[in-house]
Amino acid sequence: MDEENLKKESAVSEKEIEKRKDKIIHFLKERVNLVFYAILAIMVSVSVYIRTLNLPKLKDITTGTWTLGPDLDPFLFLRWAKYIAEHGKLFILDVMRYIPLAHICSGTSCNPVNASNDMQLISYAIVWLYKFLAIFSKDVTVTYAAVIFPVIMAVFTAIAFFVFARKVFYKEDKKIANIIALISTAFFILIPSLLPRSIAGIPEKESVAFCFIFLGFYFLLEAFTSGKLKKGIIFSILAGLSTGILGLVWGGIEYFLLTIAGAILLFFLFGKMDKRKFLFSILWFGASLAILMPASTRYGLSNIISSTSTALVLIVFFILTIDFILFKKKIFKLDEKIKKKINFPEPIISFLIAIVLGIIFSFIFFGSSFITGIAQDVISSTVNPITLNRFSVTVAENRQPYFTTDWSGEFGPSFFNIPIYFWLFFIGSTLLFYYLIKILDKKEKIILTSSYVIFLIALVFSKYAPSSVLNGESTLSLLVYFGGVLIFLGSLAYIYYKRYKSGNFSVFENFDIAYLFYFVALTLAIISARGGVRLIMVLGAVSPVAIGFLIVKSIQRYFKQKEDFSKLIAGVLVLAVILSSIFTIWAYYQSDVSLATNYAPGLYQWQWQNAMSWVRENTSQNAVFAHWWDYGYWIQTIGERATILDGGNAVGYWNYLMGRDVLTGTDEQTALDFLYAHNGTNLLIDSSDIGKYSAFSSIGSNANYDHYSWIPTIFMDSTQTQETNNQTYYVYPIGTVLDQDIIFKDGQKETLLPSGNAAVGAIIVGVNSDGTILQPSIIFVYNNQQYKEPLRYLYASGKLYDFQSGFDAGIYIFPKLTATSDGKLSVTENGAAFYLSEKVVHTELAKLYLFNEPSNYFKLVHTESNLLVQQMQQQGLNVQDFVYYQDVQGPIKIWSINYPNGMKVNPDYIRTTYPDLSVTTVKSGVY
Q1: What is the Cα–Cα distance from 77 to 204, expressed in whole angstroms?
Q2: What is the DSSP letter of 630?
Q3: Strand 624-626 vs strand 418-419: parallel, antiparallel, or unpaired?
Q4: How much is the mean pLDDT over the chain?
Q5: Which end of the chain has fewer CB atoms at under 10 Å, N or C?
Q6: Residue 845, pLDDT score
Q7: How many CB atoms lie within 10 A of CB 735?
């Protein structure tokens, strides 16, 4: 009986299990979206986990309180947020920046210090988050809100990206669209180029911007694909609001506007624009301006008209208006008259007429320079989206990217030097393009797809490597670049006109509007990434959609194959795509975890925290600091003191003067004149200014680069050390080119050693057995000939040696640390050095910062030693200011400024525009 009962119970339980399984399966089928959202939630959780790994390390070592990560701009937003939290709103003029501008400006000259001309919305958002978090805990601070703000925005950005990616494939089965969007999102949250802009402690503009980029894209696609007028109106207004917010947090709104303008123009040319979509477009732009214009002075009417991005939007609207008048309303039957004379498609006729009328109106109202200016801007922005001047080329994130050095690194990981992510999105975008045009004839698809591949190759590989003939600037590079564009546009125009002539033009109306939209966004992202390193993240944000599409469509294609051989080939390709994708995601995850864990203040930032603690406690609250622009936000926010320059670089002319007259200047009185005009009370120089010398000497030079130079770090080569009975000679190879022409004299013979061609080969330093330093020698190399000459200056062990004769340059010797095989560090006291050329050795930076020369007007009041140097000094090692270990480790030095009696303000030093723009022009081959 017991056995029978057990069997019955077992049978019942099995049936019960089956019923429950069926219920679960039915539940999942009915609520399949919940599964997708659950997976999305897991992905977002992974994103949050990664972006908060650095939280425990975001502390100020002098106060023990929260601090931001190793970045610059976020400290401005934090300072503003603290002010808003205390006063309820932000000030009109910022008295901590560009001293003394806030006290002397009027009208538009106040723009650099006018808070409404900057991205203040981020600071308000931080305060709103602070007030929300304060509901749950009284211990929350504004700084903590700023620390956690980018992580919260990363959550919203991931969701916004997901809904946008899903909308791109709105014509697909909902499950397929969700799967593509999820795969795309997996890549998106892990893409390395986005992590530094969305990690805890870095409340950067981009942490907010990408959220509203994708929301704007999504809302516009919803509006354009909506079958209901009311729904379309609502979504177009929401898109406008997103655009407005984007413009208030990020200068890169131009990318967004150009994408929309390009997409609308394509919709129009392919016959996909109707009155509703035109209405939605106008509502979108109107809602954008309704947010932008009242909220920021940078979006005044004149700026909107003169801006290339907004001007192109208006031009597209003008084209649509012309088409509406001629071919929709058919006013005066002009359409019939025009068609008799011009046998083109209606969109092309409207386009041409609008362009002609636009040129005529522009000549009448704005002059010829307006049209030529826009044309030049469009062409230059497609070649180099970042405007190049001496300042922009010296900023690291504006550096020109190349495929071999930047694209392959950012879009890896690499397998046998093949950047996997790059080729995944390259192939994915090609496949997506093929699906866009699949309704065309076979021949047309072959022509267009082939031309699209050529177009992509031309865009990317025309800027292959800086040393290559395809360096982005050579004639061949430009021919490849524009040739690829012309081949693609020519192929498209050929098929476009051919279809029109054959009466089959309406086929273009069946193109997927979402695919068209995405291709404009992707193409402009590629162009942007080609123009500047910092814009690579735009492509990193947009490209995952193509990869998600590639993976899903490859799998679908495999299961549709019926022939065994075709299925085998398809299977191999699908397996390669899947394995490559998994490998890439895993590599990105590991890379992100490694980067995020240590993305926090380190030795350098701790040194600054100590220095700023000294500033807060030992300088007047009215103090004004002079320094190179990089450190402005740190001094204003951490040190709580005003500055002459900062990272906004809104008064470029003052950067020029600071670089020319103070840091690279040789006349103390000229430096004092500039500092006095700006109420400077303190001068600060940081060890990283050694490496930045080429940047501020370039910016501070005249049109002929008279101050331009650099300070190379060189090392003693122990293998070339020579010992005699009483002397030892140390050799410091250099290998840097001359920064100016030199006339070498050998008796009656003179030899020109030209800058840029002749080089400094080495410096030889001799030391007697009693420790006496002999006058060093410098060796120049030109045309395989060596030219040896005595060197005048040498600095070692805290002492400057002036030998009164010889080549007017110097060497600054300091210790070098080397890791030994047993994990210890060995010290070579004369192991490293700076070479100071004739242009450098007499500058204020060299005299004050390196040589510690006394001055009647600059009094050294604080030296914040590098923490590694401090440790070595505590161990009794003979270390002065500098040591080399992995990089130059040096002090932050601060001087108080005492002005001579009778000084007067020179108005030339406080003007805000360049008297001569030639000093901003970049010379080819020069930094």
Answers
A1: 8
A2: G
A3: unpaired
A4: 89
A5: N
A6: 96
A7: 11
Q: Domain extents for the chain?
A: 2-30, 603-701, 713-893
Closest CA to 763 of 742, 786, 744: 786
Structure tokens at 560: 């549709």
Structure tokens at 59: 């502390």
The length of the chain in residues reads 927
Q: Label the pairing between strands 682-685 and 624-626.
A: parallel
Rounded to whole angstroms, how far apart are CA atoms 739 and 734?
A: 13
Alpha carbon 558 to its chain centroid, in Å, reads: 40
The two tokens of residue 703 are 């049109």
Q: Compute the distance between CA of residue 364 and CA of residue 440 in angstroms, rounded to an integer.
A: 44
> Which CATH number does 603-701 carry?
3.40.50.12610
Write b or e for each residue in 736-754: b if 16 or more Cβ atoms lie within 10 A of its Cβ, otherwise e: eebbeebebeeeeeeeebe
Give the Cα separation of 356 and 479 in Å (integer): 28
Q: Using one digit for the tens of pLDDT, what is the confidence trace for 327-379?
A: 777 776 666 677 777 778 888 888 888 888 878 877 777 666 666 666 666 66
Q: Which residue has the tokens 């010398």?
A: 693
- Helix H, strand E, coil C: the string for 589-613 is HHHHHHHHHCCCCCHHHHHHHHHHH
The token duo for 878 is: 């003979």
Can you tell me the mean pLDDT for 396-417? Answer: 82
Q: Could you tell me if 524 and 286 are in contact, meaning their C-beta atoms sit under 8 angstroms apart?
A: no
Residue with tokens 């299977």: 571
In the numeric block, which tokens belong to residue 86?
């205390």
Q: Are 251 and 204 in contact (CB under 8 A)?
A: no
Pairwise CA distance, residues 773 & 794, whole Å:
9
Other beta carbons within 10 angstroms of residue 194's beta carbon come to 22
**pTM, full prediction:** 0.90
- The vertex-662 CA angle with 99 and 706, nearest 5°, equals 125
Q: Quick check: 526 and 460 in contact, CB under 8 A?
A: yes
CB distance 158 to 113 below 8 Å: no
